[in-house]
Amino acid sequence: MKRGLVLSLCAAAVVAMSAPAMAAVDASLNLRYSDPANPADGGEWQLVVQSDSGASNGVSGIQALITGASGVTGIDTGSVTGNAAVWDNTGDTVFRFQPITGGAEVAAGDALSGTLLTGVGTGGASAGNIANDVLLNPTWDNSALIASGTFGATRPTFTLAANEFDSGAAVAATVNPVVVRGDSLNTLDLEDGSVSGSKGLLLGDSNRNGTIDAPDFSAVIGNFGGVFGWDGGNFSGAANGTVGAEDFSAVIGGFGNSQTPVSVAAVPEPSTIVLCLMSSVAACGVRRKRG
């Protein structure tokens, strides 16, 4: 498909109205690495947006240019069913994308026909189809997921133009923070996703929930000696390939650590942690022996 067609679609979905800009949109390109210890393996990107102009407004359309993207989840040149949590006019939703040199171009939004509802993708406690930010920054909770895809060794970047609904009318929106956030250990930083001054995806946090706890320990014990990725308890990357002693040490050494401060009363004494872990190991040993 020619680039001009997508730009024409953008003009329909992200139409520049004569009314002055009365709204603002925040956008984030979230990078979920397949293996945070090996950023070169790439992973999935997610484009999320939210309005910061209050519940009376909502995102009506976007045009995004994403570089370094190797694919977009969807049907090339075809419409997809609108998600009611993102776009109001689900029957007229526009969603188009095309591969371009070094990336992808995405246009999405409500066709400007029928009744234009409001309050979509406004962040905070308002409508959005991502209740909790995947990179653990509560300011991005309840964002609206626009599109997703994959990327490789090249770290994606993106630019964005957007419109909003303001009391039922579409107006050109001011684009505020446009950030790229990732969970790679390469920088030991969730970038703009840090919480309460604490940064970084924790080494040993297999399920990426911000805390090293029992599920992470179970992943290492259950998969010990096997070939798994990060989510299976292998935190040392492809150079090692198996869940081993260093992964066990990462969980033991960081057990109870969290990206957000935990009250002292909620943190067990080190001796209690060790006893619990030793009991778990013993139980695993008994089960294996019986099997």
TrEMBL record:
Protein name per Swiss-Prot or TrEMBL: PEP-CTERM protein-sorting domain-containing protein
Presence of the UniProt keyword Signal in the record: yes
Keywords: Signal
Signal sequence residues: 1-23
PROSITE patterns: EF_HAND_1
Record has Signal as a keyword: yes
Organism lineage: Bacteria, Pseudomonadati, Planctomycetota, Planctomycetia, Pirellulales
Domain of life: Bacteria
InterPro entries named among the record's database cross-references: EF_Hand_1_Ca_BS, Ice-binding_C
